Amino acid sequence: xxxxxxxxxxxxxxxxxxxxxxxxxxxxxxxxxxxxxxxxxxxxxxxxxxxxxxxxxxxxxxxxxxxxxxxxxxxxxxxxxxxxxxxxxxxxxxxxxxxxxxxxxxxxxxxxxxxxxxxxxxxxxxxxxxxxxxxxxxxxxxxxxxxxxxxxxxxxxxxxxxxxxxxxxxxxxxxxxxxxxxxxxxxxxxxxxxxxxxxxxxxxxxxxxxxxxxxxxxxxxxxxxxxxxxxxxxxxxxxxxxxxxxxxxxxxxxxxxxxxxxxxxxxxxxxxxxxxxxxxxxxxxxxxxxxxxxxxxxxxxxxxxxxxxxxxxxxxxxxxxxxxxxxxxxxxxxxxxxxxxxxx
Length: 344
Known about the structure:
Elements: H1 2-23, E1 27-32, H2 37-52, E2 56-62, E3 66-72, E4 90-93, H3 100-117, E5 146-149, H4 171-180, E6 197-203, H5 214-217, H6 225-238, E7 244-250, H7 255-266, E8 271-275, H8 283-289, E9 295-297, H9 302-308, E10 315-325, E11 328-338
Helix pairs in contact: 2-6, 3-9
């Protein structure tokens, strides 16, 4: 009898919680992190409920034993008011010596300062920059005192204190990103189904570029398969039985073998799986395909981070923290952003 009463009290309490969520448009909650299957399922039921109510929000799982949910009604983001007058300087950026994603991130960091302070940008050439429109507002070196923006990654557990933060949601800056990253020639984009929720899973392996030793050195760039499988499963819960199209976008040298292992691990009849049979001849085919998807699961990869700035997603999931024990990595923190306005 006591057990039945306990279940009844728990059910009524959860129902009251959902009722409050529906009535209050803007709240912030800090709750105990889920420790088991039942609790994990419950939090994704809450996300699903908020999503169905047309609310936007963000869930942050923290390694200190808490998760936080913030939600609000869709609202138009206000544009930042730029500096009242140009400061008489120009900005440029330092390259990391890395690949395309890192170079584009360096460019966009400097582009943000140029936008925020209303100053011109001096472009530093990098391999592949001819593929993008980048910026038509370029100062010549020597025209102004030059501020050099150092390369830095987006904030993570390994790099928690960047020189400055970019407001990636500023509408004016998003328009500049779209103009700067506009391709200079057509690309072979993926043909996605229109009758399913489409999910891009960027599984970074390193291909022929990165040695295996980097996987343990940079776990957020190379999360274990358990991270990706867990987040795909989370999406099946958020969308409650709706059909998904899950595309593994990977530089794995055996993509079909990887796809089969994921399919066998989840065994969900509502998921249609897909991947490329081989790597594309041009990486930008993938870069410009990423914004076409409804949902994105991505590692700490500048390539997919920059590509994701070209759109909004119904759900976007990324890792934030990890712990290592010998040669094993466990993702202990992640961020889930959801916005029902942005189904493609």
